[in-house]
Design brief:
mainly beta; Immunoglobulin-like; 5-stranded mixed sheet; 5-stranded antiparallel sheet; 10 strands; about 0% helix; disordered N terminus
Length: about 130
């Protein structure tokens, strides 16, 4: 490719056992990085592959998350906001931007299969 690399995203599945919560959801936890750095404050959503139904959700804090997720296939959406240095909105407050590219959230390409108690680590990288 000329001057650009493809964005690379991957989840590493390290699933062991088959323990679940009483409500039928399974424990999923892991880490999330973007361009090699931990996502300090964000969110991860596990969404049904054929609808917008949320199968599980967790805040991301200091690059880590822990969620209860329904068994099966899911699209994964990862979001994180940050203030834009030196920019203000109409009210004079810091301007906030979603800095994770759409291919990891609104137009996600990320998928996972939750079949048991799992560790899913997400390393989101983009061309620089």
């Amino acid at each position: 490719m000329v001057g650009r690399r493809l964005v690379v995203a991957f989840g590493i599945l390290l699933c062991a056992g088959c323990s679940g919560a009483a409500d039928g959801k399974l424990h999923v936890s892991g880490t999330v990085t973007f361009r090699g750095s931990q996502i300090a404050d964000g969110a991860i959503y596990f969404v049904a592959p054929d609808s917008e139904a949320v199968l599980g959700f967790s805040k991301i804090m200091a690059g880590r998350y822990s969620a209860q997720v329904s068994r099966g296939r899911a699209r994964v959406r990862i979001t994180a906001d940050r203030p834009v240095p030196g920019r203000k909105n109409e009210a004079g407050n810091p301007l906030i931007e979603q800095y994770i590219p759409p291919r990891f959230n609104d137009a996600t390409e990320l998928e996972a299969t939750v079949e048991g108690r799992c560790r899913l680590d997400w390393n989101l990288a983009a061309a620089g």
